[in-house]
Write a structure and sequence with these properties.
226 residues, alpha/beta, Rossmann fold, five-stranded parallel beta sheet, 5 strands, globular
């Protein structure tokens, strides 16, 4: 791979997406970070995404705005309470109300559009199918299907100028393994944000699924979350 190969990296400001961006940079990609202001209640993550993009040397960082609160039906985009203190077995058994309908499909579609404009062949997304909250759009089957669709949907692919690859380097890792990987990459954990329901000052609640999974990962990795 050329050191100038371009990649679009979906960046939420959370631990997983920041680790993905750090991996892409380590592997020599010229990274174009893409974040979304979609009406989510945890918009503090956008400030974190900007800090992560700057710290990791993204070539550009863009924030696309649209309002999924128009559809709602998620604790992240409507006034439904965010679940708290759920056991891990429950998290992995059912799709929670924090699932945002079609979110990763929408995000990847925007990333695909930008990748075609940039003539980039690679899109990085920090989905995880092991320590995750039951989201259907974090599964390998979904990613594989989207990649097939992407190579049917764009002019660049049809003309043979690019072949899109959806990169999911974290998809089979435990949260502890992700923490260890991020530490090895030198990621500053303090500029990332994982909470679904932060307070007005942006402090994590400590009890939502995302906070619990993050804490579990750091504890199992034996690393302090600073």
């Amino acid at each position: 791979m050329s050191s100038q190969s371009k990649a679009v990296c979906l960046l939420s400001g959370g631990l997983d997406s920041a680790t993905c961006l750090a991996l892409a940079r380590r592997d020599g990609f010229d990274c174009y970070a893409l974040s979304f202001d979609y009406g989510q209640r945890h918009r503090i993550e956008l400030d974190c995404a900007a800090r992560v993009a700057a710290a990791l040397g993204a070539a550009q960082h863009r924030v696309v705005s649209f309002d999924l609160r128009q559809f709602g039906h998620s604790a992240l985009t409507s006034d439904i309470p965010v679940p708290k203190s759920r056991p891990g077995a429950v998290m992995s058994r059912e799709i929670p109300v924090t699932y945002v309908p079609a979110r990763n499909t929408i995000f990847l579609s925007f990333a695909l559009a930008w990748a075609e404009v940039l003539e980039a062949s690679d899109i990085f997304i920090g989905v995880n199918a092991l320590d995750y909250s039951g989201y259907p759009d974090c599964r390998p089957e979904f990613i594989e299907a989207f990649e097939r669709m992407a190579n049917l949907a764009t002019r660049a692919a049809l003309e043979g100028r690019t072949k899109i690859h959806i990169r999911t380097p974290l998809i089979s890792l435990s949260k502890a393994a992700i923490v260890k990987l991020a530490a090895g990459l030198g990621l500053d954990f303090g500029i990332t944000h994982s909470c679904y329901d932060p307070d007005a000052a942006g402090r994590p609640c400590g009890a939502c699924d995302s906070c619990i999974l993050r804490r579990k990962g750091f504890e199992e990795a034996g690393i302090v979350d600073e």
